[in-house]
Amino acid sequence: MRMNGNTALNPGDLAINNPTDHARHWPIGSPISTPDTARAELEDGTPVRLRLLDAEDSATIQAFFESLSPRSLHQRFHQRLQTLSPPLLRLLCGMDGQRHVAVGAFADAGLIGIGRFVCSAENARTAEVAFSVADSSQGRGLGKKLLRALAMAASERGVDTFLFTVLADNRAATRLLTIPGSSSVIRGGQLEGRVNVADVLR
User: Which residues contact 23 (CB under 8 A, 6 or more apart)?
Assistant: First the structure.
């Protein structure tokens, strides 16, 4: 799953925690209905906390990507990486909470997954979406939770379409993103497509 450089979560699956501590992670003006920290549960019962990431999380984000296996890095960036270059790290840590939004999933072990969208320079209502999940947490439905949380944040920021590019043999990513209403095509071993944010939230 690249960005230039896994049952959908029901609203009841998100519970507001510390709603008064709203401003640090959700920009001023965001509806109170969006939690600063949301609780969810993976398919195996593991509890996770979902929240927006910001610049203060840069070291944690870097450590997360450095912990991924070569296979997971290849699925995320579509190339073989030994280390993350400084420019790539700056991109991954460059969230502004509006046009570049990242949601982190935290368990007792720390950060176990990141979903993000970056708005198109030509059309702010369209954003490219990508996900990374820790190797030990894959196959437990975390991608679905992250996608739902991203769609909630996107809807509040006027984004109505997600674009995606994933490796065609990445079955988890293709299952996650090819939902009813989405469209996609395979080009050069990659699945490229789009999905309406509203369809993710149904």
Answer: none
CA distance to 111, 132, 196, per residue, from 151 (Å): 20, 16, 9
pLDDT tens profile 40-66: 999 999 999 999 999 899 999 999 999
The ranges assigned to domains in the chain are 11-159
> Residue 117 is encoded by which pair of tokens?
């969208």
What is the sign, positive or negative, of the torsion defined by CA atoms of 14, 195, 101, 57? positive
Pinpoint the alpha helices (H) of the chain.
58-67, 70-77, 86-92, 142-156, 171-177, 197-200
Query: For 11-159, CATH number?
Result: 3.40.630.30
Q: How far is CA 8 from the centre of its chain?
A: 14
- Candidates 122, 181, 50; CA nearest to 195 is 181
